[in-house]
Amino acid sequence: MNTFFEVVGATIRIVLIALACLAFFWLIVLKVVSWLGAYLRISPPCPASLGWIVNNPLRRRYMRPVLDRVGIQSGETVLELGPGPGAFSIDAARRLEPQGKLIVVDIQADMIAQVKARVQQAGVANVEMHVANAYALPIEDNSVDRAFLVTVLPEIPDPVRGLHEIYRVLKPGGVFSTTEEFLDPDYPRRKTTIKWARAAGFELTERYGNVWVYTLNFRKRA
Fold it and tell me: Do residues 87 and 127 share a domain?
């Protein structure tokens, strides 16, 4: 009996040590590497092969309020930059029905392919998809009502340059919304995000959330 409990205790210790090592690697090592990459302006996007990480049931649960914070309204034209595998795309597109349109843009063709598959499976018909760079969006000037990014902005090597492009495509008075979560190795502090957005000409209008997950909404000057 004692041997059984000793084995169980040893197994639990091994599991706890493994989890601690994983947490240290994810929250410390990867963040240091990410900050160094940002300093050197080397910020690669999340690989398409890891799309399941941002589209798992646990994350979908605690990220559920994000689109409410973005404030999507029926009939709008909305840009989602960096949709990844489309974790928010279907819900966003349905909120825009019947006359609105969602434009998704990602630099990775594999990610857009995943979004396309999800859109087709869901039977959503108001999604326009593009493979393009954040610095050259295939969208006309002053044509978008709202743009939102979820854990994407710090993956753009030059965030301010990317925000200038978002500013270009937004209509006067249009809204730019960005959400960040602490578990993301690229996680920027709120004041950093605000600094980037203001440098691109945006005005902060709304703040939501906390250190774990926050959303900031900005407006393009009318």
Answer: yes
State the Cα–Cα distance between residues 222 and 210, nearest whole angstrom.
29
Task: Kindly state the average pLDDT of the residues 22-32.
Answer: 51
Give the residue numbers spanning the domain of 125.
Answer: 48-219
The gap from C-alpha 80 to its chain's centroid, in whole angstroms, comes to 9
Indicate whether 181 and 141 sit together in one domain: yes
Are 121 and 21 within one domain? no
Report the first-to-last Cα separation within the chain, whole angstroms.
74
Q: Rounded CA gap, 151 and 148, in Å?
A: 10
Q: Say whether both 194 and 125 belong to one domain.
A: yes
- Give the closest residue to 81 by CA, choosing from 102, 59, 60: 102
Q: Which residues of 110-142 are buried (b: 16+ CB within 10 A; e: fewer)?
A: ebbebbeebbeeeebebbebeeeebeebebeee
Q: Which amino acid is at 177?
A: S
Residues 101 and 202 in one domain: yes
Same domain, 35 and 55: no
pLDDT digits (tens, 9 = 90+) for 148-195: 999 999 999 999 999 999 999 999 999 999 999 998 888 999 999 999
